[in-house]
Amino acid sequence: MEDAPDVATLREILAVVDLKGWRGMGDFLLRTRRLIVLPGGIVPTHEHDDRPSIVTVIVGEITEHSAFCAVPILHRTGETTPEFGAGHRHWWENRGSTPVILISSDVVPNGMMNDPHM
Fold it and tell me: By its UniProt entry, which InterPro entries does this protein fall under (predicted)?
């Protein structure tokens, strides 16, 4: 799978919960973000081997390129997809002419909250 760059994707952190110490958790955060992927925009190649995430398409259609699928996956408004597990590597692109809005919640190591690959 190719390494796609970060292109024309805006990220806004909506809420963060510090999980440190909760049920033996290390120094992790539960983060919810709004991503706006402009036309031609790309959410860069990233992995979910040890970073659980749930993404919901709020507005628009976006194409996912996944290490698990030979054919790109089209996600439409209202669809939700979990992202987690060994070998889960992917990137997303907006092939349309209007912005796509996503809501993403994930668990990230403290200090990595603003990394576009996380």
Answer: RmlC-like_jellyroll, RmlC_Cupin_sf
**pTM of the model as a whole:** 0.89
- Residue 32's domain is classified under what CATH number? 2.60.120.10
Residue 116: inside a domain: no
Q: Which burial class, exposed, middle or buried, applies to 46 when counting CB atoms under 10 A from its CB (0-12, 13-18, 19+)?
A: buried
- At 100 the pLDDT is 98
Residue 97 pLDDT exceeds 80: yes
- What is the C-alpha R_g of the chain? 14
Sign of CA dihedral 46, 117, 84, 82: negative
Asked whether residue 2 is assigned to any structural domain, the reply reads no
**pLDDT band for position 26 (cuts 50, 70, 90):** confident
Q: Contact at 8 Å (CB) between 5 and 93?
A: no
Interatomic CA distance for residues 26 and 33, integer angstroms: 21
Residue 71 backbone phi and psi in degrees, to 5? -115, 135
Burial class (CB in 10 A: 0-12, 13-18, 19+), 81: middle
